Amino acid sequence: MADLQAIVDEIHDKLTPRLGEGKVADYIPQLAHVDPKKFGMAIIDVDGKVFKAGDCDEPFSIQSVSKVFTLTLALGKHGETTWNRVGREPSGSAFNSIVQLEHEEGKPRNPFINAGAIAVSDLVLAGHTPREAIGEIVRFVRYLADDDSIAIDPEVAKSEQATGFRNFALANFMRSFGKLDHPVEHVLGVYFHHCALAMTCTQLAKSALFLAASGRNPLTGHTVVSKQRARRINALMLTCGHYDGSGDFAYRVGLPGKSGVGGGIMAVAPGKASVAVWSPGLNHNGNSLLGSLALEMLATRTGWSVFGQ
Ligand code: GLU
Known about the structure:
Elements: H1 4-15, E1 40-45, E2 50-54, E3 60-61, H2 66-78, H3 99-103, H4 114-125, H5 130-145, E4 151-152, H6 154-163, H7 165-176, H8 184-195, E5 197-199, H9 201-212, H10 227-240, H11 246-252, E6 257-259, E7 264-269, E8 273-278, H12 289-302
Antiparallel strand pairs: 1-2, 1-8, 3-5, 4-5, 6-7, 7-8
The chain binds glutamic acid.
Glutamic acid is lined by residues 63-64, 95-96, 114, 160, 167, 195, 260-261, 286.
């Protein structure tokens, strides 16, 4: 295997002069305060070896990266019937787009756009109060990362609750089509809180390791999902994980990945390693500019693209 620590150090060194590029998300007021020059990266291989650089142990708001965890939970609870509520096709639209919902009668294209993740939050809520559902999500992520210190940043959740008008519009729209089972306030309470999970790159890479290792976390020995489900979640991350930048990410990086507007990206090299990178400046699709570049450099240096060397 390539010398991963040398590669991570090289990526960090090459990107250091560019720190601060891109635009920090400011539509969630609490995120606007983040230092745009932060950069962290962590890789964990399937043998459990960790390679890291920069601000990799500083927690940041994982935002939409959390949608992978809630989807995994919803699939665990509802199995294939999950797909009655949300599709599996790339949207080709912005992360918070409302236009397709009208044509598709309240069934969102995929679980990683905001509308789709709101539908998934509704599924996770089944049989729970919002507080219980949020607790279940936090416990699940702690179990995945084997780290009980992981928590939600309540200020970020509050900030989004106060300004998430578009998400309220999406949820009300779905509710009007009878596509949400629970009150909009409850569903969005769950959604805003899981988006406000704060994690480090190291924690995020650990929590994704099961997707790199056929459903089983090699660090803990826990089987999280079946091989087939891990493969399918990876397929969804590859096709839908970067909103309308998913095609470009597949072209440049070639790894299943999920981005968030906090500047984090979680990526999976199946059979090899999980990776997390954080740089708050975003590109025009709302994906981390330098984070995508770091993953592109990593894929080039390792030959890890799922499409071949
Ligand atoms: N909580 C964010 C929102 O709903 C998530 C967006 C993202 O990370 O892409 O706007």
